[in-house]
Amino acid sequence: MASDSTPITAGLPDALPPGGPGGEGDRLEALRKVCLFDYLLHIAGLLLSAGLFSVVALIVNYIKRDSARDTIYESHMNWMIRTFWWTLFWMIVIAIPAALLTMVTFGLLSFLFVLPGVWFLYRMIKGILRLNDGLPMPA
C-alpha cells in the first residue's frame, strides 16, 4: 500500500479567523453572561438568602474584574462591587441607632432597613437594563 505524503492538516487554515472560537467575540459574550449571572445572584441574595448569594456574586465580581479590563463589563463589575459595599455600609449605619433605640421605639425603626434594600434592588435592575442595551455603567 502506498503512503500518501500529504499532511493531515493540508487545506486547513493556519490560524482561526477573527471572531471564531476563542476570539474576542466569545470572550465578550462570556463576560456578558458572567455579569448577568452576577446581577441575578445579587438580586437573589437580597430577596432569598439574606445576602449569602450576594457575597458569592461579590467574589465572582472581584475574580472576573481583571479579565473584563477595558470593556463595558468592567464598569458593570465595579458597579456591583460599589453597590454591595455601600448597601452594607448603610445597613450598619442604620443598625446602630435602631439597636440602641429598640427599647424606646419598640422596633418602629425597622422599616428603615427597607431603604438600602430598595436602593440595592434599583441599582441591580438598572445594571441589568444597561447590560441588555450594551451600555457601560457610569463611573
Can you describe what's shown?
The chain is 65% helix and 0% strand. The chain has helices spanning 24-47, 52-65, 72-105, 114-132. Helix 1 (24-47) runs parallel beside helix 3 (72-105) and helix 2 (52-65) runs antiparallel to helix 3.
Topology, pairings included?
Elements: H1 24-47, H2 52-65, H3 72-105, H4 114-132
Helix pairs in contact: 1-2, 1-3, 1-4, 2-3, 3-4
Order of helices and strands: HHHH
When the domains are counted, the total is 1
- The whole-number mean of residue pLDDT values reads 84
Class per helix and strand makeup: mainly alpha
Tell me what portion of residues adopts beta-strand conformation.
under 5%
Q: Which geometry do the CA atoms define?
A: elongated
User: What is the makeup of the main sheet?
Assistant: none
Helical proportion? 55-70%
